[in-house]
Write a structure and sequence with these properties.
By secondary structure, the chain is α+β, with helices and mostly antiparallel strands. It contains nine helices and five strands, in the order H-H-H-H-H-E-E-H-E-H-E-E-H-H. The protein has helices at 22-46, 49-60, 62-67, 85-127, 129-133, 169-182, 208-225, 265-275, 290-309, and strands at 138-142, 146-152, 189-194, 233-238, 257-263. It has a five-stranded mixed β-sheet with strand order 1-2-5-3-4. Helix 2 packs antiparallel against helix 4 (85-127) and helix 6 crosses helix 7. The protein is elongated and about 165 Å long. The model has no long low-confidence stretch (mean pLDDT 79).
Length: 319
C-alpha cells in the first residue's frame, strides 16, 4: 500500500478562438442597412409626387440639380422645394388635366340640361292642343350647338304666305306655345330663316336672302311677344337656300323653315368671341400701306433734292 503510485488528473482548458468578435461587426452592418431600407420605405410612402419628382431629378443629374440652387429634395418636415423644369411641367400638366376635367363636367351637366329641355318640349307638345295639331311640322333634336327646334312647311300648310314675311295665324300660335317653355331657360337663342331654291321675283332687289332674314326677325318678334326675354336672343340670321333640308329636292316645302336653337355655352361664347372687338386688328385699314409709305418717302426726297438745286434768292440769307 505504501508503494502505490499517486495519479494527478489535470483538465486541459481550451481558450476561446479569436474569431468570436467578427460576427458583431457583420450584425451591425446588417442592422444599419435594414434601418436605412426601412427609412427609404417610410419616405417613399409619405412623400408627395412633387417630392418624388425632385428625388428623381437629383439622382439623374446631381451636379446640375445642386447648381440650380435647389435645397434638399425631401424635407422631413413635410415641405418640398422643387425648382427644376420637369417638376414645373408636371405642375402645369396637372392644372391642365384639372381644367379639362372641370370642362368635361360642365359639358356633361349642360347636355343633361338640354336633354331635360327636350323632354319638357315633348311633354308640352303632347299637352298643348295647338302644338299637337302641328306636331308633324315640329322637328326637335340635339346638335353640337344645343337643342334645335325646326318649324317646317308642309304642303297646303305653310308658315308664311308665298313671298311674304308675315306669319300665318297658326304659325304665330305655335311660336307663342314654344315661348312658354323657352322663356324658362337662360340660354341664348339663335333664330334662322330658310327658304327653298325657288327664286324670289316679287320686287326688284329683294331676294331669298332678304326674305329669309325678314322671316327670322318676324319669328323673333313672336317669341318675344310670347314671353321670351329680348336679351335672350343671341343671333337672328337669314340663310336663304344655302342650307337645304332636302338636298335631293331643293324646291320641297320642308326647305322653307324657321330654326330655333337653344345654344349651349360654347356656341354662345363662339358668337361673342368672333363678333367682339379684338385687342389688335389683324389688318388695320386706317394705317398707310408700305407702298404709300414708300411713295411718301420718295416724294420727300425729291422735294429736298429740288430745293437743294434751286438757287437762293438774293438778300435772303435764311432760305
Amino acid at each position: 500500500m505504501e508503494n502505490q503510485p499517486i495519479i494527478i488528473k489535470r483538465k486541459k482548458v481550451v481558450a476561446a478562438g479569436h474569431h468570436g468578435g467578427s460576427w458583431k461587426v457583420a450584425f451591425a452592418d446588417f442592422a444599419t442597412a435594414m434601418m436605412a431600407f426601412f427609412l427609404v420605405l417610410w419616405l417613399t410612402a409619405t412623400a408627395s409626387p412633387e417630392q418624388k419628382q425632385a428625388v428623381q431629378g437629383y439622382f439623374k443629374d446631381p451636379v446640375g440639380y445642386t447648381e440650380g440652387g435647389s435645397r434638399n429634395p425631401v424635407d422631413l418636415g413635410g415641405s418640398a422645394s422643387v425648382v427644376d423644369e420637369s417638376s414645373e411641367n408636371v405642375a402645369e400638366s396637372d392644372i391642365q388635366i384639372e381644367a379639362k376635367i372641370v370642362e368635361e363636367m360642365a359639358e356633361t351637366l349642360e347636355r343633361q340640361k338640354m336633354e331635360q329641355l327636350f323632354q319638357d318640349l315633348q311633354e308640352r307638345i303632347e299637352e298643348s292642343e295647338t302644338l299637337q295639331e302641328f306636331k308633324d311640322q315640329l322637328l326637335i333634336d340635339i346638335t353640337s350647338e344645343g337643342l334645335r327646334i325646326q318649324i317646317v312647311d308642309r304642303s297646303r300648310r305653310p308658315m308664311f304666305d308665298s313671298g311674304r314675311a308675315e306669319l300665318k295665324y297658326y304659325s304665330q300660335d305655335i311660336l307663342f306655345e314654344l315661348a312658354k317653355t323657352l322663356s324658362t331657360v337662360r340660354n341664348k337663342l339663335s333664330i334662322t330663316g330658310h327658304t327653298d331654291s325657288t327664286p324670289f321675283s316679287g320686287r326688284p332687289g329683294y331676294t331669298n336672302w332678304e326674305l329669309s332674314a325678314d322671316r327670322a326677325n318676324t319669328a323673333r318678334r313672336a317669341l318675344v311677344a310670347g314671353g321670351v326675354d329680348g336679351r335672350q336672343i343671341g343671333r337672328v340670321v337669314g340663310l336663304s337656300d344655302s342650307v337645304l333640308f332636302n338636298k335631293d329636292d331643293p324646291q320641297a316645302p320642308v326647305n322653307r323653315r324657321i330654326s330655333i336653337i337653344v345654344m349651349n355655352k360654347k356656341a354662345a361664347d363662339d358668337i361673342q368671341s368672333s363678333a367682339g372687338l379684338a385687342d389688335e386688328p389683324l389688318i388695320d385699314l386706317t394705317a398707310p400701306s408700305e407702298e404709300d409709305q414708300q411713295k411718301a418717302m420718295d416724294s420727300l426726297e425729291q422735294g429736298d433734292w429740288a430745293r437743294d438745286r434751286e438757287p437762293a434768292p438774293e438778300g435772303d440769307l435764311n432760305w
